[in-house]
Amino acid sequence: MAIHHLESVFFREKVAEALEDQTLRGALQNATGLFRQRRLAATASLSDWEKLRDQARAIKAETLTHLDHYLPEFVAKAESNGIKVHWARDHQEACQVISQLVSEKQARRIVKSKSMTTEEIGLNHVLETDGAEPIETDLGEWIIQLAGETPSHIIVPAIHKTKAQIADLFVDQLSIEPTQDAEELTKAARRILRHHFAQADMGISGVNFAIAETGSILILENEGNARMSTSLPKVHLAVMGLEKILPRLADLEVFLRLLPRSGTGQHLTSYQSILSGPKRNPDQEGPEELHLLILDNGRSAILAEEITRQSLACIRCGACLNACPVYQQIGGHAYGSVYPGPIGAIITPQLAGLSETKNLPYASSLCGACRDVCPVKIDIPEILLHLRAKSVEAHENGKEAKGFRMWAWINRSRFRFVWAHRLARLGGRIFMKNGQPPQWLQRRAPVLGAWAKHRQVPTLAKRSFREIWKKELSRKQP
Amino acid sequence: MTRNEEAKEAILQRVGQALNGGGVRAPRKHPITDQHYAGRPQTDLDLVSSFQEKLESVGGKVIRAQNLEQAFNELWSICQERGIRNLACSDAPSFRDLTDQAPEGLEILDFPHEQAELLEAEAGLSEAQLGIAETGTLVLDGEQENHRLTSLVPPVHIAFLSSKNIVLHLGEALSRAQQARSFPRTLTFITGPSRTADIELTLVVGVHGPRELVVFLLP
Ligand code: SF4
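ok -> structure tokens follow
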């Protein structure tokens, strides 16, 4: 299990870079602020928003707790509907399976609608290596693909790009007439992508929900590119993580009310396609084959503990990104993973392991804003703390752990406690200048140096409370 | 065992182990027992006017017609007003043999369509089997009509909907689909024209799907 193109080890460097980028920070402020406002207005349109969230949480909890029942139920039903189901244990296997399907179908041009799961497994890269031409058709994703970048927001992938940058990109890569008009740019995209839709041999999509009871998949969108990708080409392949299941068709009622309101602040997105099989007599349209790839890639391990299991309830609405004071400042790229923001800070380490991602659980002030907006009530701060604990345990002999062991040892004996303080006081008086430890000490103890960089190190009082008490206060009459 | 069977077995085993390793599980029971999902609109809502209001609020147009004949007459004049030169029809029975009725200068493209023809079409005509008052949504059922492409590919989508078929909320629409003799292979919900805000959050209507949605409401 792993995540393609994982760069979370460079978190600190990327944060520093993002904080310097004034254009990015302006764009982030705008976008996250607007989405927060819209979300609030949309949730206020329902009188029992909280009850709706509780129901969604309960449905997801039931499904995940009994996924060993609902997953096989879904698959059996989907297969009886004529959907060809493929299984992949990890990202490599997923790419292999898809590569093989692509070569079997002799597919060259492949139109893709937004799917984070295919980004997780690095599918485009593999398809390109195979000589196929994957084309992202969601406008934002397409812009990112043309620019050779990665998405920075779950809902608006190109949020970090200005109109001028996009215009330059289009002029440069697509030879369109220079324009600064979003409408003109969109028109150009429509024209060019239509050509691709018409020629494509295969369409690849993600899945928002998979219904166990009916064996259907649901795809939700605004642009119509998912409908195009799943209706025009002869072969449609949908890719989903194994957690996307809902027990009943009726459950969609809850999630269709929640997801658009939380994501874009719409009451409903323009389109929902509920697909339950390929073209069959007497249908005269739709794909001849419908394939579905079910991916594990570390998800099954997350099911084991109740505390982590809730991470799999995520419906990828993006609300926690917009609410997060950290994301608002640093944007999506800093997280170094296809999953940014608070949800990324919990999902990325769980899918890819903590060794390369141990900074991510700390990318939070634990303010809880993410938990408060999450439509499925995932307790993100709780999971962050859990991951922090794991990461500390994994570094039993790290400097921090040693430091705390030493601190505990000193505090266990009165003698050591008193003498440690005396020494610290003396040392402070001799060496400290303007609240800063001396350079040589900062070099020897980088932890102290890093801490003191943006803070004044407090000097200890000349006398401790214990000494004052002993000499003066204890003898005073009440 | 094939690779796929092996992978399936391995994944299901992992899932089972993960879930069985952590002590006693609550018994399997769907949490919504009374089928009453939260967030439903009030039951005294006027279905038709709510449908219209919601759809208009997202940029859809609603035209009320007394009967089919009046609707077609309206349709022809809309096409003429906008200079629409051809109209791709779905295979719904009411759209059979429209050529004789259509005004001069408007070509009727009967179902089924060649892909190239569809890509050139200037408007598409379909029915909608249901409307949802809660959201102003059209529900198109693939068992009743081949609707996928006529409602998507041309830049204008015109849909005929009977007011009798407007239901109150999303849940009702879903349960209607489920009550059908065979569950539809394709069920499409449409709420307004195609839209994007991917370039600096500027709303642009009509990206990959239609930029205009016109609904004729029949009795
Ligand atoms: S964690 Fe919750 S708020 Fe964040 S994307 Fe997932 S569902 Fe939305």
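Chain B has one domain: 42-191+209-218.
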